[in-house]
Specification:
This protein has 2 domains: 2-181, no CATH class; 188-258, Winged helix-like DNA-binding domain superfamily/Winged helix DNA-binding domain (Arc Repressor Mutant, subunit A), CATH 1.10.10.10. Helices cover 64% and strands 4% of the residues. The chain is built from 10 helices and 3 strands. The protein has helices spanning 5-38, 60-78, 84-101, 105-120, 128-144, 151-183, 199-209, 214-221, 225-239, 244-251, and strands at 2-3, 188-192, 254-258. A 3-stranded parallel sheet has the order 1-2-3. Helix 3 (84-101) packs antiparallel against helix 4.
Length: 279
Amino acid sequence: MVISQRHVWKIISGIGFVFMLLYLVSNIVFSIHIQAEFHQLGYIQSELYHPEKKSFPLPLALMIMNLLGVLVFLYLFIFNPSNYYIYGGGCLAYSLMILAAGGSVVGFLLFLLACAFANKCGFFEKGGKYKWFILIFLLLLAIGSQLRFGFDYIFLSLGAIMVTLFLLALAFFLFLPEIERFRSQEPLVSRLPPADFTRRDLLWLQRIQAGEKYEAIAAEQGVALSTLKNRVRILFERLGVQDRTMFLAAYAHVALILDAPAPAGAPDPARKPGDTSGG
């Protein structure tokens, strides 16, 4: 199976942009409709909020978040579609806001997604226990804020979250054989365009995939460590990742190959002047 990580995430960011834009427009239309009908500040009448007590006014904060979401997805689509840091931060902010506003299932699912992105970024590699503690504390704080709606409401919210966890676990074990079968099939392949990657670039990326340190690669290849790091940074940008951690997370199980041999006599931007060794 041939994939392009950047193209996949570009599609995802594009879909996210469209959805957030539609959601923002629907919120604006809804608020105009409510104000025209009641001639006063309206209240959201949905399962995300407590309709009887009307404790949450027209969600200006939610509209602002939606606007920021539109701008963020537009930035991702144009510049960096596979930035896990932005995806994770956005999911966390959105989840806490929804939970604090009275939501349960959607907010909790977004929280899990934020944790998944954080794990992909290597966020928990250093000080993981403390970071997990902070995240769980924020989650409980957001859920606890629902006490203003009453104990019955927060119990219903916690019940919905527990049911969601059970269903997710059930779905995971149900599809576990198919997941294992898929993982055992032919590995994913990412073809690197020869216009942007050389044979030496490919070699360096493959050695980074294997866990080798920059110092060891530079010493073996006979290049300065700064030269190697600068070139690898450029390669990461072309692959749509920000750093080594994101590269390893995104391409850990992906075979990198050159799409076609580099043209004969083409200059190698990673080669030192006067270096006649093979790429």
